[in-house]
Specification:
It holds the Pfam family tRNA_lig_CPD. GO terms for molecular function: ATP binding; RNA ligase (ATP) activity. With 276 residues, this protein is α+β, with helices and mostly antiparallel strands. It folds into 2 domains: 109 residues, no CATH class; 137 residues, 2',3'-cyclic nucleotide 3'-phosphodiesterase fold. 31% of the residues lie in helices and 21% in strands. It has 8 helices and 11 strands. The strands form 3 sheets. Strands 4-9-8-7-10 form a 5-stranded antiparallel sheet. A hairpin with a 2-residue loop joins strand 7 and strand 8. It starts with a helix and ends with a strand.
Length: 276
């Protein structure tokens, strides 16, 4: 946290234009600590760093008090002070106005934006964290019948490759990074546990891997330009090779084989989230 000049020194060499937001409480430091502690407690498991339970509560409160006491706002550059008692929309509008006034790029007026929708997405992402025991790696459609999937693949396309034990269509990959598309994440959270019928269109294969392309003409939310099921890969080849295998830029690759599947081919899956 950028609480004082010493903590802000690591930005000095970057030449960044920073807008500093200072949080305060009209009743002073103790009241600020109290409301911050209460918010940490109410966030529960959605807060991955602090947990203000009976065992950790005192330590968390001391940490918050130490931060509030140590805080020294900068004496130069744009700065606004906001009260933690203000509602989120009010604070967001104030910060947005300052960014508009001092930023190097033009940003839309808040009147042209749907603040309620944006806060709704943020709250949905927050509640998402409470539903899972640890960091989610990806969202997917888990295929219900693996044997049905394998029936669609010519046996020779599996020679020398390791076949996946289970099959899925990745709809959103997170890895260890923050989600870059919270709206898509919110849509997928809303579909969690629901079933869907998928339409496989073709089987593609090369010496490195084999995958089934899945049609998506708006049937399901997905970040991947080439929705697919990774079937098998040669030793040492990651499943991500399927994206390259299905890309049109490899259409003329003599090592690549694509077999169209019969019209009306269907498989069933369920929307899920997976972690490492």
């Amino acid at each position: 946290m950028n609480l004082d000049e010493a903590a802000r020194d690591d930005y000095a060499d970057l030449g960044l234009r920073a807008l500093t937001v200072v949080w305060s409480h009209p009743d002073g430091t103790d009241a600020l600590v109290d409301i911050c502690f209460d918010r940490v407690r109410r966030r529960g498991s959605a807060h991955r760093t602090f947990k203000a339970d009976r065992r950790e509560g005192r330590r968390v409160r001391q940490t918050l008090l130490g931060c509030a006491t140590r805080c020294r706002p900068p004496t130069e550059g744009p700065l606004i002070e906001v009260s933690v008692t203000d509602d989120t929309a009010t604070i967001a509008r104030r910060v947005w106005a300052e960014l508009s006034a001092h930023g190097l790029t033009d940003i839309p007026e808040t009147q042209t934006l749907d603040m309620a929708a944006a806060l709704g997405v943020a709250n949905a992402c927050e509640s998402f964290l409470c539903r899972f025991p640890r960091h989610v790696e990806y969202a997917a459609i888990q295929i219900a019948s693996p044997e049905r999937v394998l029936e669609l693949v010519p046996p020779e396309m599996l020679d020398g490759k390791k076949v996946q034990k289970a099959f899925h269509v990745t709809t959103l990959y997170l890895g260890r990074d923050a989600c870059k598309d919270p709206v898509l994440l919110q849509q997928l959270v809303g579909l969690l546990g629901e079933s869907i019928e998928l339409t496989p269109t073709s089987v593609a294969s090369d010496p490195k891997g084999t995958a089934i392309a899945v049609r998506n003409e708006g049937e399901f939310p997905c970040e991947n330009a080439h929705p697919h099921i990774t079937i098998a890969n040669a030793p040492g080849v990651p499943p991500a090779h399927s994206n390259e295998l299905l890309d049109d830029s490899h259409a003329d690759d003599p090592c690549r084989t694509v077999d169209s599947l019969p019209a009306g081919t269907r498989i069933t899956g369920t929307f899920v989230f997976r972690w490492p």
